[in-house]
Amino acid sequence: xxxxxPPSKSTGKPGKGIKKKxxxxxxxxxxxxxxxxxxxxKSVRTYAEKIANEQGVNAKQVYxxxxxxxxxxxxxxxxxxxxxxxxxxxxxxxxVGPGALKSSHTESKVVSSVSKFFSDYSKxxxxxxxxxxxxxxxxxxxxxxxxxxxxxxxxxIPVKFLIKYFKA
Length: 168
Known about the structure:
Elements: H1 17-28, H2 36-55, E1 62-67, E2 73-78, E3 81-86, H3 88-96, H4 104-125, E4 132-139, E5 142-149, E6 152-157, H5 159-167
Antiparallel strand pairs: 1-2, 1-4, 2-3, 4-5, 5-6
Helix pairs in contact: 2-3, 3-4
């Protein structure tokens, strides 16, 4: 008899439910060994403060909106108004700071990672990927990530969850 996996009530053999439970748990656990979350939080906060100073507003009024209709598009908003469309290079700068742009491979990796996130997230929520939006803003702790379906708020998304896509 295996003391780690109690026998199934129906078969008397070790239960397999624990394996599924552990797999589900491991999919949600993230360990930030390299401090990515801290880097992203600092970069988002720094970027928002820079734009806020240029525009003469509070940093909380600055946010980036990401959509993925046919291709990835990124917009910078200030006080609820569109300021400009951002390039992928600017999105990388927003997430991890200017030092991360060592090659064009970085930009393609970001596009691929964000696109995969949109695809997986939409599939999980049973949403049309064209109508999902992600808004990223800054607060006292760092980055605040919110998802929307069309104009309706869905949920806050932990920064660690997004980082998983960039490390894959």
